[in-house]
Amino acid sequence: ECILEPLSLPESPGGVAAVESSPYVPCIFCKECYLLAEQNQLLKHMIIEHKLVIADVKLVADFRRYILYWKKRFAEQPITDFCSVIRTNSEAPLEEQDNYFLLCDVLPEDRLLREQLQQKRLREILEQQQRERYDISFHSTCMFCDQEFTGNRSVLLNHMAREHAFNIGLPDNIVNCYEFLAVLQEKLDNLQCLYCEKVFRDKNTLKDHMRKKQHRRINAKNKEYDKFYIINYLEFGKSWEEVQSEDDRELLDNLEEDWSDWEEHPVCAVCLFCEQQADTTEKLYLHMQKSHGFDFPKIKSEHGLNFYQQVKLVNFIRREIHHCRCYNCQEKFQSKGGLISHMEETEHITFLPARSTWDQPQYYFPTYENDTLLCTLSDSEDLITEDQSEDIPVVSEDISNLKALKQSSVLNQLLYEENKSQERF
Question: What is the pTM of this model?
Answer without folding.
Answer: 0.47
